Each structure stands twice: as structure tokens, then as C-alpha cells.
């Protein structure tokens, strides 16, 4: 049976996961990691020079898995040489965030340099104003993931190695951020000249809106918007996912016997099936409640 200490640890994991999802979403927004913000890389090719920071060199799952694995490896090294675990987690998060910021810098400058033929300028002030928030959000995300991994490994006795747990959680938070937060990734500002919810037709990729109410748009404008919608939704989704998948092995710990391991596997499979069923019910409800997206006179929106 689950005890009060384990219950508190599960609650702490849920809180840390919510923060990790929140900061991961904002890091992705301010760095144009995923759609539709990553579509700004096509803007100069259709004569739309911009002032966006664009580091979309990979998907969010791969990017977050890499930084989380680096942070966990460094933290594990420091704990191995008898550093306090909290100090080790902080140092690992710092190294991972600095590495992430370096990749963001070289990917942005490299892409802009390659787009010089399309008359896309490289703005130094954009780099200065975006690189530090990217590093800060990455630090918070990695620190929360490392903290969750540490609790799972050393408090709840998870069988996987500490860096591997962080790698899996990094993939998870990136996948959730790329799917849950995608609706609120600034598309309302970037593509406000097209119907909301219609998706971005391949022929319209890069045809972005570059001016806002207070001047030329940057990622900071989208980050403010996403902090109210996309980021909380991402944090809630990641927190629920981590909590609902953790309590199974916490209640039915495989180390307590073979029967508990079998029960944990069965419950995990049933949990996945339930998610598929609920997702299908929600999809059908949304189609009946709001109707399909219909094609406009200009053909901007398509029926899903």
C-alpha cells in the first residue's frame, strides 16, 4: 500500500512536472523551436524579412532529451564525487542550459547567414534579447526534470538509471510541448491574415505578419501570449502524464514481488487504452460540437 511519504513525493513530482512543461513551452516559443513559429525560417524566401529568433534545428523531443541527458550525466558525475545532490542538480542544469544556449546561438546565426541571399538581416539586439531567456527557460526545465528523475530513482526506487529517466522525461516534455502547446505558439499573430484553426497550407508557409500593435513583432510578443494559454496547458498535460504514469509503479512496486510487477504492467496497458478511448470521444465531440473547418472563398482553410 502507498504511504504518506510516497504520496507527498508524487505530489512534488506533479508540481515539478507542471513547472517543467510551462517553461519548456515558453522556451520553445521564444526560440521558435516548433510549428508554427519555426515557419519563420521560410519567411525570407517569400520576401518576408523578420526580427524573429529562429533556432528550429530539431523537434522539441530531441532537443529536450539531449539537454536533459547532458544535465543528468553532469549531475550524476558530481554526485559520484560526493557533491550534495541539490548542488549537483543545479550544476548539471547550468551546464545543460549553457550547451542549449550555444546550440541556439549557432543555429540562429547560421540560418540567418544562409538566408543572406534573400536579404534577411542578422540583428544583434535580437540575439542579445533572446539568448538569455532561452538559457533561463532551459535551466528551469532541465532542473525540474532532473529533480523528478532524482526522486524517481533514489526515493521511489525506479529501476532505470538516473540519466535514462531524464532522457525519457525530456522526450516526454518535448513531445507534449510540441503537441499541446502548438495551438498557442503565436500562430494568432504570425498568421492572423488566415482563418484561425485552418492549419497552415504549405503554399502559405512563411507568409507571416510582421507588425503588431506596438511595432515589429518578435518572439517576446508570442511568449507573453503563450504564458497565459499554451504554457499552462502544456504544464498541466505533462504534470498529469507524469503523475498518472508514476503512481502505478509506486502503488504496485515490482520489487515487492512478481505479482506486483504484473499488476503494474496490466494497469499501464489499461491506462493507455483508456487514454485512446477518451481521446477518440473528445475528437468526435469536438467535430459534432464545432463542426469541420470549411474551405473559404480563397481556399485558405480545408475540411479536416
List the helices and strands and how they pair.
Blueprint lengths: L3 H28 L28 H21 L4 H30 L9 H32 L6 H19 L6 H4 L20 E2 L2 E2 L2 H8 L3 H22 L6 H33 L14
Antiparallel strand pairs: 1-2
Concise overview:
The chain is mainly α and 304 residues long. The protein has helices spanning 4-31, 60-80, 85-114, 124-155, 162-180, 187-190, 219-226, 230-251, 258-290; strands at 211-212, 215-216. The protein has 9 helices and 2 strands, in the order H-H-H-H-H-H-E-E-H-H-H.
Question: What portion of residues belong to β-strands?
Answer: under 5%
Count of separate structural domains = 1
Give the C-alpha Rg. Answer: 21 Å
Distance between the termini: 47 Å
Q: Total helix count?
A: 9
Low-pLDDT windows of residues: 295-304
Gross geometry: globular
Q: Which structural class do the helices and strands define?
A: mainly alpha
Side-by-side strand order of the widest sheet: 1-2
Mean pLDDT: 84
Strand count: 2
Secondary-structure element order, as H and E?
HHHHHHEEHHH
Percent helix range: 55-70%
Major sheet summary line: 2 strands, antiparallel
Amino acid at each position: 500500500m502507498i504511504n504518506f511519504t510516497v504520496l507527498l513525493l508524487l505530489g512534488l513530482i506533479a508540481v515539478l512536472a507542471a513547472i517543467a512543461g510551462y517553461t519548456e513551452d515558453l522556451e520553445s516559443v521564444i526560440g521558435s523551436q516548433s510549428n508554427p513559429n519555426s515557419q519563420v525560417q521560410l519567411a525570407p524566401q517569400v520576401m518576408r524579412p523578420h526580427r524573429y529568433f529562429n533556432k528550429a534545428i530539431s523537434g522539441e523531443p530531441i532537443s529536450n532529451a539531449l539537454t536533459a541527458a547532458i544535465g543528468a550525466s553532469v549531475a550524476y558525475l558530481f554526485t559520484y564525487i560526493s557533491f550534495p545532490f541539490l548542488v549537483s542538480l543545479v550544476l548539471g542544469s547550468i551546464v545543460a542550459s549553457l550547451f542549449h544556449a550555444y546550440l541556439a546561438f549557432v543555429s540562429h546565426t547560421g540560418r540567418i547567414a544562409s538566408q543572406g541571399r534573400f536579404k534577411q538581416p542578422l540583428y544583434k539586439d535580437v540575439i542579445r534579447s533572446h539568448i538569455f531567456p532561452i538559457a533561463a527557460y532551459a535551466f528551469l526545465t532541465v532542473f525540474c526534470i532532473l529533480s523528478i528523475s532524482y526522486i524517481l530513482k533514489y526515493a521511489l526506487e525506479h529501476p532505470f538509471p538516473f540519466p535514462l529517466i531524464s532522457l525519457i522525461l525530456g522526450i516526454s516534455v518535448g513531445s507534449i510541448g510540441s503537441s499541446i502547446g502548438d495551438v498557442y505558439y503565436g500562430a494568432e499573430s504570425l498568421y492572423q491574415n488566415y482563418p484561425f484553426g485552418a492549419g497552415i497550407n504549405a503554399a502559405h508557409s512563411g507568409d507571416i505578419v510582421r507588425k503588431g500593435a506596438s511595432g515589429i513583432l518578435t518572439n517576446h510578443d508570442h511568449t507573453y501570449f503563450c504564458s497565459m494559454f499554451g504554457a499552462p496547458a502544456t504544464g498541466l498535460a505533462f504534470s498529469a502524464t507524469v503523475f498518472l504514469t508514476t503512481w502505478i509503479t509506486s502503488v504496485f512496486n515490482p520489487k515487492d514481488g512478481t505479482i506486483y510487477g504484473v499488476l503494474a504492467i496490466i494497469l499501464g496497458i489499461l491506462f493507455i487504452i483508456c487514454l485512446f478511448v477518451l481521446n477518440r470521444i473528445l475528437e468526435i465531440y469536438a467535430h459534432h460540437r464545432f463542426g469541420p473547418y470549411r474551405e473559404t472563398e480563397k481556399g485558405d482553410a480545408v475540411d479536416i
